[in-house]
Specification:
The chain contains 4 helices and 10 strands. Strand 5 and strand 6 form a beta hairpin. It starts with a strand and ends in a 5-residue tail after the last helix.
């Protein structure tokens, strides 16, 4: 992980976080937002030229940007390479190395990855004055990706993880 000066405008992202938090004030869910017109979003600077999509995950008071870019080599089933920058609403950011990023190589689409990262991911658009806001339609609705796992599936996943952990703790010769 490398710490460096934030080249993005942290105030824009902090204001977007506050706007999303006002729509989803619940503290017990994982949430984030994605930028609808990614290529036209001036708030992302040069990232928009190499990436095809971006998601901002809200983690406490920090915003973590996941950008998705096409792999240089095709044919392996790999759809995207993911880059992650933590703290984009701060003056200093942490840029993660590929090996430090969960799901750095993904074989599924961006919406599926968003849903793995968050319970709710809202669509945001540029607000016309250099910022981002939730994309509220004329009917008052906001496009969102929602993922609340089925409780039985979640219990099964935890049991499998627990049993794998116990197996991994045993000596190799048992």
């Amino acid at each position: 992980m490398k710490e460096k000066k934030n080249e993005l405008n942290p105030e824009v992202f902090e204001e977007a976080r506050k706007r999303v938090e006002s729509v989803l004030p619940h503290n017990n869910i994982k949430k984030g937002f994605f930028i609808r017109d990614f290529k036209g979003a001036s708030v992302l600077g040069g990232m928009a030229s190499v990436a095809v999509s971006a998601v901002v995950n809200i983690v406490g008071d920090s915003l973590n940007l996941r950008t998705y870019r096409l792999p240089k080599q095709t044919g392996s089933g790999l759809l995207y390479k993911v880059d992650e920058t933590r703290g984009i609403n701060k003056q200093k950011v942490q840029v993660l190395k590929g090996s430090e990023i969960k799901n750095h190589h993904i074989h599924h689409d961006v919406p599926e990855d968003m849903m793995q990262q968050n319970n709710v991911t809202l669509e945001v658009v540029q607000d016309g004055v250099g910022g981002l806001k939730p994309n509220v339609g004329p009917d008052g609705m906001v496009k969102a990706y929602v993922n609340f796992p089925d409780s039985t599936q979640e219990m099964l996943r935890k049991l499998v993880e627990k049993s794998q952990g116990k197996q991994d703790d045993r000596p190799a010769n048992s």
